[in-house]
Amino acid sequence: MRTYPESRRALALLIVSAVLAAVLPGTSAAETPAETRAREAAAANEAARKALVPGPSAVQLKDEASLALPEHFGYIPKKEAAELMRVMGNTTDEDFLGLVVPLGDEHAGWLIELRYEASGYVKDDDAKNWDAAKLLDSLKEGTEAGNARREELGIPPIVVTRWIESPAYDAPTHRLVWAAEAKLKNGTDNDPTVNYNTYVLGREGYISLNLITEASSVERDKAAAHRLLGLVAYNKGKDYGDFNSSTDKVAAYGLAALVAGVAAKKLGLLALLAATVVKFAKVIIIAVAAFGAGIAKWFKSRFRRGEPST
After folding, report:
1. Residue 148, exposed/middle/buried by CB under 10 A (0-12, 13-18, 19+)?
2. Which of 51, 162, 181, 201 could form a disulfide with 174 if both were Cys (CB 3.0 to 4.6 A apart)?
């Protein structure tokens, strides 16, 4: 673990490297890894800043739905958001739709990942009988099974410890909410990252809004996820109630599997801000104003704590 002074010196060196690379291009025969990270992080921030769509505005979610983005929220489109995720050490795929970030609130420090999964119609009848304790056990087992792959990718192994919020499904609106706490297996994260997962089911799949925050802040920050979840509206003919059993594809899993099975494969993101992104946060902080005071405050707080770099 780096101490605070060591982290501060490392950040200063990265800033100097980034400035020199911008002012004196071509002066170095070979770019160091730190210079490469600084350059890529600065470029990703600048591209995201230029592409950011402030609310209020309508954000189209493929041809399935729209999000009525409110004031004080900003949307980073898929292309720029995917690059930002890459420099933070995370991968995206074709289901990734972009990021939502807070604007103007110095006390907010979260990201929301938008996705659309074309899974087919997800049957919700098992929600009436599911057992939260058994779901948590399944989630723990699936997460442990995925640790070998995470280590291959250089991502620290994690363990699921408890429900932050037990799975809850609202049948009239077809919305699902759940959140689990996951910690680094080596126990070095005192304030672990939380994925607060919200979903709205549709005729052909589901839209997810994944709030990424910290355990100490989730009770405050989850209001943002709930607000956005209520502002997602499927296009005409795409709503859950438009399902046609004669013609439409049915998903291979129900709601319980969506929580315990499918989700376990994606819990590597829980390690993102708890460990992997920290090494990039020290350089992203250079251009962090692009995301408003909230993200700046979050990155800076982690920098002050001198959390480990991997």
Report:
1. exposed
2. 201
Neighbours of 11 (CB within 10 A): 16
First to last CA, the chain: 9
Rounded CA separation 227/231 (Å): 7
Q: Which of 299, 292, 9 is nearest to 307 (CA)?
A: 299
User: Could you please report the per-residue DSSP string of the chain?
Assistant: ---HHHHHHHHHHHHHHHHHHHHSTT-SSS--HHHHHHHHHHHHHHHHHHH-EESSEEEEETTTEEEEEPTTEEEEEHHHHHHHHHHTT----TTEEEEEEE-S-TT---EEEEEEE---B---GGGGT--HHHHHHHHHHHHHHHHHHHHHTTPPPEEEEEEEEEEEEETTTTEEEEEEEEEETT---SS-EEEEEEEEEBSS-EEEEEEEEETTTHHHHHHHHHHHHTTEEEPTT-BGGG--TTTS-B-SS-HHHIIIIIGGGGGGGGGIIIIITHHHHHHHGGGGGGGHHHHHHHHHHHHHHTPPP-
**Predicted pLDDT of residue 28:** 52
Check residues 259 and 63 and name the one with the higher pLDDT. 63
Of the pLDDT bands very low, low, confident and very high (cuts 50, 70, 90), residue 89 is low
Taking the C-alpha atoms of residue 86 and residue 82, their distance in angstroms, rounded to an integer, is: 6
Domains and CATH numbers, the chain: 53-272 (3.40.1000.10)
